[in-house]
Amino acid sequence: MRTFDLAVIGAGPAGMAAAVTAAKHGLTVALLDEQQRPGGQIYRDVDKASPERTEVLGRDYTHGRSLTTALRSASVDHIQGAVVWAIEDGFRISFTRDGAASQIGAEKILLATGALERPMPIPGWTLPGVMTAGAGQILLKQSGMIPEKAVLVGSGPLLYLLAAQMVRVGVPPLALVETQSWSDFKTASRNLFGALRGWRYLSKGLGLHSEILKARIPRYTGATDIAIEGTTNAEAVAFTAQGKRITLPCETALLHHGVVPNTQAARSLGARHLWDARQHCFSPELDGWGASSVQNLFIAGDSAGIGGAKAAEIAGQLAALKIAAECGKLAQDELERTAAPLKRARESELAARPFIDTAYPPYRPSLLPADETIICRCEEVTAGEIRRYATLGCLGPNQTKAFGRPGMGPCQGRYCGLTVTALLADANGTTPDETGHYRIRPPLKPVTLGELAAMGTQSDKVAK
Amino acid sequence: MEADYAIVGGGVVGLSVAWGLLKRGKRVLVLDGGDGSFRASRGNFGLVWVQSKGMKQPRYARWSQQSAAIWAEFAAELGHNTGRAIPLEQNGGYDLHFSEETLEATVRDYETLKHRLDGDYPYEVLGHNALRKEEPHIGPKVVGAILHHQDGHANPLRLLQALADDVRRLGGTVLTGKTVTAINKSDLFRIACDDGTSVEAAKVILSAGLGAAQLGPQLGFKAPIRPQRGQVLITEKLPKMINRPSLIARQVDEGGIQIGATNEEVGLDDRVTQPGLSGLAAEAIAAFPALARAQLVRSWGALRVLTPDGLPIYQESKTIPGAFLVTCHSGITLAAAHARLLPDWLEKTDKAPDLEVFSENRFAVS
Amino acid sequence: MKIVSPFPDANFSEHVAVSFDGQTHFLPKGTNLAAALLSAGITVFRNTPVSGAARAPYCMMGACFECLVEIDGVVRQACMMEVSEGLDIQHPQGRNSDDADL
Questions:
Q1: C82 vs A135: CB contact, 8 Å cut-off?
Q2: pLDDT digits (tens, 9 = 90+) for B234-277
Q3: Domain contains B83
Q4: A3-116+260-330 and A368-435 share one CATH topology?
């Protein structure tokens, strides 16, 4: 088994920046990523995109090329198309690539596994034709494709970005159904001072709004009672806004109400996570460098807490510097000196966050869905079932998992975990921290028994 | 709060006993742990199993048979009460063999046991071809199997849920999120929990799984219980491909193929390991080659609750009468016996089963 | 749902034959398989093994497992694959399929 000083999981902004920085300081580095090309979701296929496409996607997207370029010239073992399905103490990383499983060893690990769309359980959200706004972005970035006759539903800057990009390619959405209200904006304005320090984000936001306005896309704000209607496919978005019930026929509904850290790998290693009340999600407990509660395990980027691509890039660099120092490749004073400007830059990147988080809060009814709404897409478990299991003594999601199978499907609870925790906390009168989260175990992603069996039972020792 | 019985441990063992006592009109209080407690009740393999049990102690084989025989009726009642059936199949189960030698050796042992059970041990040996007729997906490496007609399998999680539901419906009190720290007796047993909760009961049953190792000695039990790790795999949901369960693999009612299990002495470590998973996957593929292309979607490690000889312990405390230790590693198979037969033993009625061989007397003083 | 390619570059790539449930589709080689199937007008990728409900890609990033298809007997995520010549794609069998009583 090949072993490295550092294994970075995830080749988005945090992972690429970390891998390059660590390699620069003389560490042996492996960078594992599921995709065939670097970039993560934010810079998905950025090297492949045609000029027409990059014009639509903008400079925030092409910035990713600075990272992929640096990665190409760095001495990093970039293992592309590698689906990591187990990380064990020591560390031993098992992954599948091209239909065969293999392992590498690593002294230290940096998880840069990014974010997931916050689950948005509403009636009809499992219908074909319902996708996340992030999925719409990925279609555009990777494949140059976009859904026609789409309604964008939810809240948050990504919704406006996607709407503007759809306008630019000449396939505008039919409407924006927004869940946030004016009062959310007023509350958020208390953070306006911080937001002004992140003026870049605000002005960008205003630019997107004016693009959408110019294209005369109908916008509905403060939408409630949202449901996707249809039998085998999405046929309409129905909602109530300004006291009126409205049904918008469509072929696609793109949902979004924020993103949350993808914590699967970190949890599988037992890293401590805490509830973040402002972002309504769990985030790993980390020090300023990204070191987790598990020795030699670092986490950076959105998987450490949502901060966006630029902040992720900086966090990756900071974690890599600290790791280099721990490996004796960087003196303490050198570490502090190099890190100081990065820390300042990160702070300014994150300045607008409190404003954004408050101005675009999650859609409340999706945090505690109505009884009949499916909350576990894989096993088709409803919110009402979770509430019933609470009356049968279930205090946490591992008990409801045993009782009714939420979280047992192939997605491993990625799209129901937060909802189950919220429902149980609400039903039992406990906090999300007291309620806890699924215990995540291998396989982090499904692996065939054949691939697994071929690895053999000899425990391959990590050469130190 | 005062009860006839306080039961420490709200897993399948504790809840089965609670259910049986409630049905007799007893006031029952169950103290259960939290979401993160070690819970064999949610990590077990789900077999309702007779063969291979009690090879050296026919009374254990008989006790398992007794429970298996009344399981269907027990499950039907629970299903009726809770409005949701508990999936159960008792059409026999296999012990699969990859060599003639192990098959023959097992048959010799079974014959001995069968004799000691007065012939009540209905099994047959299937050669490869006969087995293939029953199980079209069986692989060429399997030389044959022992088909035992008293074996079967159930959905153990649905059993757990039904018990949690019906114990409450029958008026049982279940306190959750409790860690019992001390049990004392004056007139009544007083049970103290780490969160300050204190309950009283005339009798106390310790069915706390691995927790009994710590609490048992307070009540005068030896409680020589240790954890043994079993890693278990389950695949994506597949069309029906395995008809009868075996110790290697069974197809659960939802469609997944469950594959088990390792036997590892690693203390309280319930993690899975790649070598453990790979070994189980290889064995399952040897038995059913088509599984090579099946996706593994989940795996887990669970800790068996084991005594030195693997048999249950049913013991009333000699120093503190009214305190009982009830523990076993076959809580699913024995659930029906615990619900239907054990209350007579606890209540010392005429119908009490003879459980003397399961007392702690069998363990030498160390 | 209908997925379109507003960019001219998408039309330049070589199209190869791919079979989905016995139907032949010509899809741009090397593109994301889930995206390509959607653009070919395939709106339902599978039916769940729980209720039989229709499902199609949801996240496009390998996390939701809604775009599962069966290729060479292995159930895989279409959104994590690229179009290649001769792919023989089937509806995953699942539990509720016709041969459930094999």
A1: no
A2: 999 999 999 999 999 999 999 999 999 999 999 999 999 999 99
A3: no
A4: no
The rounded distance, in Å, linking the Cα atoms of B57 and B110 is 12
Angle A393-A398-C58 (CA atoms, 0-180°, nearest 5)?
A: 120
Put simply, the answer to whether A92 touches B279 (Cβ < 8 Å) is no
* Non-local CB neighbours of A293 within 8 Å, separated by 6+ positions: A270, A271, A272, A284, A285
Alpha-carbon span B66 to A122, nearest angstrom: 49
Domain ranges, residue B180: 2-52+157-224+309-363
In B220-239, the residues whose Cβ lies within 8 Å of chain A are 233, 235-236
Residue A90 burial class via C-beta count within 10 angstroms: exposed 0-12, middle 13-18, buried 19 and up: middle
- What is the tens place of the pLDDT at every residue in B103-118? 999 999 999 999 999 9
Instruction: Give all chains having 3 or more CB-to-CB distances under 8 Å with chain B.
Output: A, C
CATH 3.90.226.10 fits domain A3-116+260-330: no
**8 Å CB contact between B42 and B239:** no
Task: Provide the whole-model pTM.
Answer: 0.96
Tokens standing for A240? 């109530």
Cα B199 from Cα B30, distance rounded (Å): 10
The number of CA neighbours under 13 Å toward the Cβ of B26 is 25
Asked: is A119-257+355-359 a CATH 3.30.413.10 domain? The reply is no
CATH class of A368-435: mainly alpha
Residue B72 has a CB neighbour count (10 Å cut-off) of 17
Whether residues B102 and B250 fall in one domain: no
CA dihedral B53, B56, B59, B65 (to 10 degrees): 20
User: Is the separation of the CB atoms in A222 and A242 below 8 Å?
Assistant: yes
How many interface pairs between A and B have CB atoms less than 8 angstroms apart? 125
Determine, for residues B295 and C75 on separate chains, whether the beta-carbon distance falls below 8 Å: yes
Chain A residues within an 8 Å CB radius of B293: 448-450
Pairing of strands B180-185, B173-175: unpaired
Residue of B7, B29, B32, B35 for testing the chain A interface, max A β-carbons within 10 Å: B35
User: Using the beta-carbon criterion (under 8 Å), do B238 and C93 form an inter-chain contact?
Assistant: yes
If asked whether residues B263 and B245 sit together in one domain, one would say yes
For residue range A28-60, list pLDDT tens digits in order: 999 999 999 999 999 999 999 989 999 999 999
Pair (B144, B171) in one structural domain: no
Q: Are A392 and B10 in contact (CB under 8 A)?
A: no
Residue A119 and residue A420 in contact, taking contact as beta carbons nearer than 8 Å: no
Q: What is the pLDDT of residues B147-184, one digit of tens each?
A: 999 999 999 999 999 999 999 999 999 999 999 999 99
Name the β-bridge partners of A61: none
Separation CA B253–CA B87 (nearest Å): 7
| Helix (H/G/I), strand (E/B), else coil: B272 | coil
- How many domains does chain B contain in total? 3
